[in-house]
Amino acid sequence: MDTNAGEQQLSRDMELRVSDILQVSDPLDSFDFNPAHYVNNIFPDEESLSNVDEVLEKLQLKAKKLDHEIKSLTRRQSSVDSEGLEELREAKRAIQAREAGSLFVKIKDIQEKARQSEDMVQNITSDIKSLDYAKRHLTTSMTVLKRLQMMVMAVDQLKEMTEKERYRESAQLVQAVTQLHQAFRSYKSVPQIDRLFRSIASIEDHLKKQIMREFENGFNGSGALVGKVATLHDACLLADVLGESVKTWVQDWYLDLQLKDYRRIFRPHEEVSAIDNVSRRYAWLKRLLKVVDEDQSGIFPPSWAMGEAVSLRFCTYTRDDIREILQRDPPKDVKILLQAIHTSMDFETQIARRYTRAGMTDSERHALNEKFKGSIADAFESSLSLYIDSEDKLLSESITAYKTETIPQDDASMVVIPSSTDLFYHYRETLTQFARLSTRQPLLDLSKVFGKYLIAYANDVLVAKMPSLDAKSITQEQIKITCLTINTCDYCSITTAQLQDKIKEKIDAGLRDQVSMESERENFVSTISLAIRTLIANVEASYDIAFTNMTKMPWSTLDTVGDQSSWVSTFQSVMAECMQTIGKAVNNKRFYRSFCDRFVESFTLKYLNNITKCKPIGEVGAEQMLLDTYAIKTTLINLPTHTRDKEDTPSVMYTKLVTRGIARAEAILKVIMVPVDPPNEFVEKYILLIGDKNIGNVQRILDLKGVKKADQQPLIERFQQKFSENPQLIEDSNIMAFDTITSAPPPATGGLGASINTTIANATFQWSQFPVNLPTNIQSSLNPLLNADTGANAKTTRLNENLRKLVMSGMTFRRDTHDK
């Protein structure tokens, strides 16, 4: 096929063949139709053009005719397509029907041939099958007859052995007869088999009676052995194969016989059965077990474990007796009850150990222990309230004894107060023993008693050993005791949490949520906070002599600035001694850092308050006091270094805490150093250093300078005028808010962590209320302190250098002020 202008056309040869077949005569139907040639043929000359209309009309008619033919062919073709499809389907169905019919015939033919083949095979093998059935039935019959013969012979032999009372052989024969008996259950309707079964049952009944007679004759009324061990042993072997009922009868009969005297002697109403005589019960059983396990051990097979069975039956009888006795007449003395409980628990452990054999697996050993655990002691559970009351009384006496406990002062290795470890050791032992008695409500009640005396130990023992907050004279031994109290509370808090977990581990699952010792732990944490407050008060009482000497100095008449004052040296000496004791005695660095933080806050307030007691303070006196303040600041910053770890250094946060606290005193002293004449200079320095417009603060500073009330009014008016010109000043910087504080602040509620955080937050809030604008030369002299060398020589050299710079800076500052 050739392609032209996107249309497909037949080849020339194909067109010619089609034209020949269709006998095409019209030029319009020719495959090589040429319109130009066709028009030229119709209109060969100009005259022929006169027939154009006629030719057009013919062509239009021909076109309409062709359209009509095309439509007719199209409709015919569509109907032909549907008819063709239907005819095609019909043809397929006909073909399938013919094929199916042929296939069905073939299948039927194959089936018929298969049936014929099967009939042929059956005819051939029918004789073989009959012979096979006959052989199978014959084999079964021979087997049944053989077994029947064996059972008859076994029954005859069993009768003979029964008559001769040969129990070992009888046991073997009974075992064989029992196995054969199972094979003939389906033949019970056969009269001969039924008679044989009745004969076997009669023999077994006779053997049971013989076994009972042998045991009844083999022991006397008190349970002593009078028969032959071998005969009784063979009888036990026979009882083992005769069935569980016979074995159970023998065991129960023997247990009742051996414990008959025990039931008679230790009747609940007899005096010998009293709770305080419980050990006599256990001694009686030990004597019996010596007979059972030694003299009579050869009677019973090892699998019967008769010694263990005797012990379990004894425990059952004893538990019931003790429960009845306790309900009727509980002991008045709890010591008797405790002794009986401990004796019973020890006995249970001994019995379990007695029957622990070599080669037992862990699971077998555990099962044996669980079998005897609580087998007697459970009877005491209803009376455990007496035990708990006794424990309550014992702990109360222990707390009383702990109050008078003497703490050795020369034992450097002691970290906690010894009574705390004794208390928790007692708790551990008591919990271990009590959990063996009960893991239910009584154990929960005991845990509440534990918690009660943990609180009592903290409040009545640990707090009582610390010196009071208002003590005036404090020794280093008292400070050490307070430090030991902190360590002990920390130890008790941790161990209390472990005790709570241990109780939850042992108590029943339904009661675990009720076990809680969080309040006891919080109480120990609160005691730590109180101990830190006590340490602060103790140290303050120790350096009070230095503050007293400070107030006695003539601050208003000093005319020169020298080295640090003598009261500072006294303060540093006292602080060094106290902090070395505290730093080495407090075991947890976290609590020592907390002490340092809270001490700094308390000290700065106390120091500021003490400055007010030194009035009037002259300008030179203020300069000397500023020098002393710098030395105090150095001492405070070095407080965290007094620990066991020589490499400890002050933290950045702690250094900022000290700097902010001391900055209040420095700001006040720098204002005092400024002369009131000229007043403008004094006012400017106040605004620069204090930065508020509170007239009350101005009056207090003027009082510290020793300015008389009459002379203060012009200055106050000048201040008011200046304040009005500076509206950006804050109302009150709280710089003088310390004058009513005379003691350490109380601890914040919510535990030690909350107390520490609250202290720091309050300190930051108070000290950030006013600006601290030190002159540049003084700032430069203070900066080296923050990065001072930790070595002793470096500290001394740096301190002297800083003191010299501070003195020179103060003199220069005062001289410049006078010149102005």
List the helices and strands and how they pair.
Elements: E1 2-4, E2 7-9, H1 12-22, H2 35-42, H3 52-164, H4 167-183, H5 191-218, H6 229-242, H7 244-258, H8 260-265, H9 278-295, H10 306-328, H11 334-354, H12 362-372, H13 384-403, H14 418-437, H15 441-465, H16 476-506, H17 518-551, H18 566-585, H19 589-612, H20 619-637, H21 652-672, H22 679-689, H23 695-705, H24 709-725, H25 752-767, H26 776-786, H27 792-819
Antiparallel strand pairs: 1-2
Protein name: Vps53 N-terminal domain-containing protein
Pfam families: VPS53_C (PF16854), Vps53_N (PF04100)
Family: Belongs to the VPS53 family.
Give structural notes.
The chain has 27 helices and 2 strands. The chain is an all-alpha fold. Among the domains are: 259-375, no CATH class; 383-516, no CATH class; 541-819, no CATH class. The chain has a two-stranded antiparallel sheet with strand order 1-2. Helix 4 (167-183) runs parallel beside helix 6. The radius of gyration is 59 Å and the shape is flat.
Biggest sheet: strand arrangement: 1-2
Indicate the overall shape.
flat
Rounded to an integer, what's the Rg over CA atoms?
Answer: 59 Å
Pattern of helices and strands: EEHHHHHHHHHHHHHHHHHHHHHHHHHHH
Alpha-beta content class? mainly alpha
Strand % is under 5%
Strand tally: 2
Low-confidence stretches: 1-7, 739-820
Average pLDDT across residues? 80
Distance between the termini: 123 Å
What level of helicity do the residues show?
A: over 70%
Largest sheet: 2 strands, antiparallel
How many individual helices? Answer: 27
Membrane topology: Peripheral membrane protein
Coiled coil: 49-76
InterPro entries: Vps53 (IPR039766), Vps53_C (IPR031745), Vps53_C_sf (IPR038260), Vps53_N (IPR007234)
Domain Vps53 C-terminal: 623-707
